[in-house]
Specification:
Distance between the termini: 98 Å
Number of domains: 2
Radius of gyration: 31 Å
Strand content: under 5%
Structural class: mainly alpha
Shape: elongated
Number of strands: 0
Largest sheet: none
Order of helices and strands: HHH
Length: about 90
């Protein structure tokens, strides 16, 4: 009787390990698929950056530069709008 309990315990442990191995393989396959997808997306982004004449390592600086330029242009546009006239028109 003790041997059958031991055998059942071993079988349970083996089945648990088999299940863990199967799940690990599934996780690995999903991770590899995700990695491949991300690499493809990265390559597309690099190609798009190249179309704009920007190297991938320069993207951070280019984004910061464009953001600064946009902020400056927005400030200039705000200065061109006759806010005082709009306020008077609204209060009529």
């Amino acid at each position: 009787m003790a041997e059958s309990k031991e055998q059942a315990l071993y079988e349970k442990q083996i089945n648990h390990l088999k299940e863990a191995l199967r799940r690990s393989r599934d996780l690995r396959e999903r991770a590899l698929s995700q990695k491949e997808l991300l690499e493809q997306q990265r390559e597309k982004l690099y190609q798009k950056a190249a179309e704009y004449g920007v190297k991938p390592e320069e993207l951070g600086d280019k984004i910061a530069s464009l953001k600064q330029e946009m902020d400056q242009l927005l400030e200039e546009a705000k200065k061109l709008i006759p806010w005082d006239l709009l306020e008077k028109e609204r209060s009529r």
